[in-house]
# Entry
Amino acid sequence: MTEEIILVLILGGLAALDETEAYQTMLSQPLVTGLIVGFLLKDLYTGIKIGILIQLIYLWVLPMGTAILPDPATGGVVGTFGFIALLRFFPNRTDSVLFFTLTYVVVFSLFAGWTLIRQRQLNLKLIQKTDLYAKEGKISKIDKLFFWGLLGSFGRGVILTGLGILGIFILVKPVMGFSASLPDHYLRGIQIPILGFGIGTMFHFFGKRKNLLWLGLGLSLGIVFILI
Amino acid sequence: MEKIPKLNLFRLYLRSFFVQTGWNYERMIALGFTWILLPLMEKLYPAKEQRKKFLKRHLSTFNANPYLATYAVGAVAKLEEAGASAEELGKFKNSLSGPLGALGDNLIWMNLRPALLILGIILASTFGALGALIFGLFYNIHQVYLRARGLFKGYGLGLGVASDLRSAFYPRMIKWLSRMGAVFLGIFFVLKSNERILERVENLIIFILMVFLSIFGFRKNVNPNYILLAGVLSFLLAKWVILLT
# Structure
């Protein structure tokens, strides 16, 4: 487990980097991190399933301009790890574990979004120092500041992922204890409102009047796929 | 002024993947943008004083969509090569910032990414890992191409770079991505409506209500977290009522 946690922490750092400072390959999307965490924890199937659900929650997040948003990158890593790990401890309580994990991801992503704002405020110091070095003509120091920027973002991801995992293990006992008092099937189907929310988000992007014909084509193709 | 060799342009291209490093609320991508241009500075300005001036003019506020910022990189490289003044460069970067942001937001965040994400989710729901891999592959083919196109068009056109941004290429790409997204949405909706969990009437009702609640909520600019919270609470309440009855 220790080895797995270390790899997941590194993934959290890389996801945070991808989301903000570097490369933007979409490695940070929960769909992708779900796959990778599933692979690292040797449960690809569960990783992808939970990755899809977290992705549906965060389809609406658009990193445009100076918008203040939740940060689903580390949230996705923590959520997928938490779900797979907790299922090992509570194999017969999938619905409760799913409900706990998804609620945790939503709250944690808000906190992660707040840390991103703080990091961007700290970045201001980097550029102020760059100004000083530029005035003095110390070019090599600018390279160093740049790498500090990268390291800061990677470090934020690693620390956040670590805190997220720790939080899951602290909260799981009381939460699962409480949910044990509920009937087994009470939380069954919690993915339904999330699915509806995800599809509603997609309509927000593509359900425009000018696309009606194409939407109809998609609906028809969907029916054909089902019949096949 | 010396001409910039292709290898140096390629170095700028590789560095453009780090354009958002050091993003801050005062000068946005200024640090990353300046860092990308350092090889250009080393090539064009051997004297320390010239380098100081170069850094000063590029550390000013600048923002653009990360994938399309290469247009500005290429065009600035061309202008620096031609010996443009600091004032001219400043005005040029200011004029480019808005269009690069608006076009990138519309093209990538509003169309390319959601369309490919829906495709990825459909494929991942059906074929597992393949969905995430195809999403990653298709998305990155686009981003690698867009960054390269921006750099070379920017360098080729210099001050006239806006002509490529106004060309028919981007509106056509946005139109087709939007249509593609609508098709994927239709497929996804049908496939998910057919899932076993929705065979129960109460689940199907909650699902459809949530779709409409989300569409309405987004249209009215309601905080998406509240929409989700309302949906989940309604689900729990419905379940509770069913349990009691």
Summary: Chain A has a mean pLDDT of 94.
